[in-house]
What does this fold into?
Amino acid sequence: MVQSLQKPNQTKRERLAEREEAIVAAAREAFVEGGLRGARMAQIAERAGVAEGTLYLYYKNKSDLMRAVVAQHWDDLTRGAHQAVEQANDEPVAQLEGLTRFHLDLLITDWPLLELSFALTYMEGDDPPSSYKRDYVIVLDGVLRRGKDKGVFVADADIRVLRDMLFGTLEYAARSALLLDERKRQEHCDHTLSALMTAMLAVLQRSGEPAQAPDVVDRLEAAIDRLEAVASSAG
Amino acid sequence: MVQSLQKPNQTKRERLAEREEAIVAAAREAFVEGGLRGARMAQIAERAGVAEGTLYLYYKNKSDLMRAVVAQHWDDLTRGAHQAVEQANDEPVAQLEGLTRFHLDLLITDWPLLELSFALTYMEGDDPPSSYKRDYVIVLDGVLRRGKDKGVFVADADIRVLRDMLFGTLEYAARSALLLDERKRQEHCDHTLSALMTAMLAVLQRSGEPAQAPDVVDRLEAAIDRLEAVASSAG
DNA sequence: CCATCGAATTGAGCAACCCTCATAATGTAT
DNA sequence: ATACATTATGAGGGTTGCTCAATTCGATGG
It folds into this structure.
């Protein structure tokens, strides 16, 4: 017996979307509780109020269903990341710090879900900058590009390297943090953020030379260029 | 029928050790080919020349067997890491660079096996600085500690943070590198190593000062913002 | 050399689980 | 009301990790 009669004033498309959302929600719960292996398709079906076979009309297998859960979550997060960047108005260093802080907080609060994403990477061989995560990562690219355009960051800094540094460091840092008790965790996060900013700025602001005095002159000149541009457009 | 008759001149203990090694070797092959999920216990048993039930006399389940494979590999690597450090005689910065280069090379050449280690972390919830990896990670701790003792590194640098930075960055960098073709890969590794050294030294050699002191550029930019506001309101 | 006994090994079978597919229910158009 | 296409069902197939009663091995002592 097919379960639910169609509610009134509901198009066919809406009903299917609603059912799909129920499936994804049930899957999210189950995967968070038990991981890719621990979750049971039968349980997901039951929680979604659907027969087991129905799951396979929407997703071709278990991994694919988990991919959907993870993709949806990255979409939500991407919006948050954009917001964190926009909050720091047009100041690249502040934007970078905002994004970094946002990402670390995220890793810690949403760890169980993000762990699923990492599991997909290692179990199913999904590329990590793949589909779901890609839009999220692009937020960083934008911050760095704008920083370069403004002359605050050196032009020859390798974006890919910075990306690995930021996301790699923070993923490990989050795992370390989660092993600590509540009190020490905050301290560890603060240390991580401050060290990571120091580290990234060292690369972003004088990548050419080895440990020397910060190249104030170049940055000053860049600022002057902008000043002159404003002045001439005002004249 | 129990398979192999005991070879001459072989004690019971030796025979068991040999059999265990055969099992681990077979398991390593199978896991590298198919991952935790793709590998089949039946296939491992066959390759090891042993009945399926015998596997469970040595390891209590599939995950446990994979743990043994991974642990053995980390042991080998730890020796290599020590060697890489000792090669740079007593110069902390050079030691750090040696270890960093060694680890990145390792990640790239041994990726399939190390991927198994990461999979265990995400599928079985093993702590990443757990058992097998711990001895390896300690090599870095030694380098940093000696650097501090010699006064080359500032004393208040947080070792945990540096650890996350080094291993996190390199893991992500290795994955990025593996997506590139042979030619670009070398370039990417060079960039990564140089950037990471710059970054870590920035933290290790002057962590005392506030991360980014309000300097001339910041004040200039603040002035520019005010100017821009004036200019736009005048236009 | 034989008998004995604990340790080691075997592999058929069990239980769990993902996924398929023949069948049924439902919504829609004529 | 009838016919058709779409969507849903859930019992069953096939695979796999793991168990355990039965069997074999090998050291020891008489």
Summary: Residues 1-3, 12, 16, 50-54, 57 of chain B lie near DNA strand C (CB under 10 Å from a C1'). Chain B is about 75% helix and 0% strand. The longest helix of chain B spans residues 12-38.
